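[retry 2/3] Glutaredoxin, GrxB family: previous attempt timed out, resubmitting with same input.
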Amino acid sequence: MKLFIYDHCPFCVKARMIFGLKNLPVRLITLLNDDELTPTNMIGKKMAPILQKDDGSYLPESMDIVHYVDQFDGQPLLSGKTNPAIGEWLQQVADYSAELLLPRFAQADFEEFATDSAREYFTHKKQAAIGDFSAHLANSADLIRRLERDLQTLSPLIVAPDAVNGQLSEDDIHLFPLLRSLSIVAGVSLPDNVEAYRNRMAARSDVPLLLDMEN
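[retry 2/3] Glutaredoxin, GrxB family: success.
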């Protein structure tokens, strides 16, 4: 199967994770961020991730891909219970995480920004959504302090480094992509067990962190 992605995209990370967790082969294909034609030809609109199945048909939407791949061999892996507190925590951090992440993504060496026009496309679209990137970068210290307080709140919710609730569940598919994205932010102090979970999940899912792009 082929998975069309943007490397920075947390929804794409969700789809990548299930292949790594189940040790299933997949060919990753990174789309240029300003390539509207390719995904539109596949599914009628510009979005990622998109899975091309073995039969050549296309499946969009990250969690639809996760469910399809998890059930593919009749042995679903995401069988653990979810914890509503994880979803509440993610919603809380979502209120401001884009202000930390999007300006840094726009500066980073992602394959989807391999051309100037692709990077400019991303910057224009995202600044229209959240405001001037330079203003958010200037506010980084306050945002990082807020994040570190929230990470302290997350710490007691993590049961084990192998799975946030002790057994793999959809909570892992939602939590790790944000923690992976946040690894691009320099100067963030994580509680030991949050860092251990992030590192272990990166290894288990075969989705590397962004520490080499940290800024």
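[retry 2/3] Glutaredoxin, GrxB family: The chain has a mean pLDDT of 97.
[retry 2/3] clearing retry counter.
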